[in-house]
Amino acid sequence: MDKSMGVDLFPVLLVDDSKDDVRFFQRAWRQKGISNPLYVVPHGQACLHFLRHEAGYASTSEAPRPGVVLMDIRMPVMNGLECLKAIRADPELELLPVIIFTTSLEYEDRVLSYKLGCNGFIEKPLDFDHLSTAVAMIHQYWTLCKLP
Fold it and tell me: Which of 7, 68, 67, 12 is nearest to 37 (CA)?
């Protein structure tokens, strides 16, 4: 992990297929002055490729091990819950912190996310100001955690 002013600058992986949500997230990331590298992939299968250094993510410099994964649930190819299940089943990835960050209000999604081993379930705010605040709080919390 890189360090800047005593803070761990672990990479963060955002897994989200919505170009608008990604753009707003990146804007909030910049607005809050977060220095951690932010990587983005569009679905669960790409997330697994990124984490396992497969397909177009073979280079560890272009796909470093993230300190935390922020994952949407509803995505094409492989949804977030399927990806979370695969992460928890992989001995190389099983301890990786995964936060479900989604617009889903379904109680079943929340329960299943925790049963599958997510580290947190956060409803994605729909307006930019609340999203920006959520991004800052998520970053602050995971910066304080001691990651494996």
Answer: 12
The C-alpha R_g of the chain, in whole angstroms, comes to 14
Structural domains in the chain, CATH included, are 10-144 (3.40.50.2300)
How is residue 69 written in tokens? 């994964």
Strands 7-9 and 12-15: unpaired
pLDDT digits (tens, 9 = 90+) for 56-103: 888 878 888 998 999 999 999 999 999 999 999 999 999 999 999 988
Distance between CA atoms of 7 and 29, rounded to whole angstroms? 16
Q: Which residue has the tokens 């951690």?
A: 36
Residue-level length of the chain:
148
